[in-house]
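Lecture 7, part B: from sequences to assemblies.

Below are the input chains for today's worked example.
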Amino acid sequence: MVDFIDYIRRWVSTKASNLLGNTIMTAAIITVTCYAVQKDVFESYSATKACLFSVLMCCIWCGLFNSIALFYSERDYLLDDLDKYLPVRTYVSANFFIQFFLSAVESVVCAFVFSLFFDFSSSGYIMGNRSLDFCVTFFLITLSADMLGFLMGMLINSITSIMTIIPVILISQLLLSGCLFDLHGVMEDAANITTARWGFYALGSIADLNSLLMPGQELSIFHADPAYIMYCWRYLFLLILICSLLSGIMLYFKMNRVEN
Amino acid sequence: MRVDIKEKLYSGKPALRDIRVNFPRGKATLIIGTSGAGKSTLIKCMIGTTSYEGTVTEYNREEIAYIPQHPALNVRETAQEAIYWSALFSRLYSKDALAAEVDRYIHTMGLQSVRDNEIRRLSGGQQQRVSIAKELIRGKNIIIADEIDTGLDCGVSRDLVSKLCSITRKENKTTIIISHNIVNIELYDRVVVLVKSSSKCGGIAYAGSPKQIRSFFEVDDYVDILTRVNAADEGGRGEADYFIRKFASYRERQGKK
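Predicted structure of the full complex, as structure tokens:
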């Protein structure tokens, strides 16, 4: 616990400016996005769906950027510190704490900008207020993407390689979200392990997308009820947990590897 | 620290063979050698990050402080902060003693004038001194420095090595420095010359005092040692095999005595 606190203290002493930088960047991205897609949102089905999808991708991008930018900016001395005196579990838990905080701040910013641009019912499904429901969903999406980025950082050694991989991750999230077209078979199974799918379902349910459909039409994926939203949140939480644990395990093996 | 590596293979091909050498306490040893002779591989064997056939004894893995060629530092920290955090995480010092120890190592490494400067504003030599201070303050008994003077001018390099050698003697540490810089050879207590044989395998061509090295290699200038052992296609005279054999028989004679 002492190492954990000291690591956070050390991080804050030199990296706190990252918090501000990332938050400003998030605010800028979400503002531009909301401005671009604001027409007919919460009035027409397709406009709302496009808006939610755009905001979802913004959150995924911000999450990925948080961890990848941070990890590669400190990679060299961090691996040296981990080799010498910083226990892997301390680093993984401290990093999770930092990213948790960063994602929380960014989601509040996202939810604030989102509520400024769009007029939607204030009654929430889980938190009592719909802005808060959106905020929690933004948070889970951002943190989930963040942990995915962290896992990628463990798997890929160079910043050049990760820059090649990021578009692949983003495109696969984009395709597997289920927003652009219906998925079947293997694609459907693969989609179940993506942040985009569960984030999009949660956002669509909170926005009550089904109520914007023409009479007689109903999609089975958006259910504006607390149980279904919790179901989507649980999946996002599970993805966060899996990526965090895998990152820790990968890092442990990386640090204790003996080459032949 | 006693190294006895019978063989180290990379993809089935021998990279090191018959490496028997002692690194005594209180002495600074220079490991010098030709390119591809296996200096870095030898270090990896010593710090336990690669497997090999043989033994490295009379040491504890936890006692090793490894100083990399390129300082691994948080460039946003000041020199003092970098040393402070290293000391803090080592958990060796009480809260009261911590500041005094940081101060001591800042003085030892001659960093007083730049202690409050961010590391990104320091020169290569100053960054390397911070990196060394970070390791020294952790109180480890074995210091392994990997080409820490690469890219530094001769004066800075000499100052760095001189400081490290003097700390080694004063604090009774075992220091092993890999370097291509042969001009500082007289500062060390011992020298190990690692060469690449004609079969492209690393072997020892000399291990002993720097005072006798010129007569062993039959040269007047230290630089000529490397000229003699370097391969012909690298501009040398390709006599590595001869000196490996010469040293093996020299060691055998010493053993009998």
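Note for the exam: The mean pLDDT of chain A is 89. Keep this in mind when comparing with the next example.
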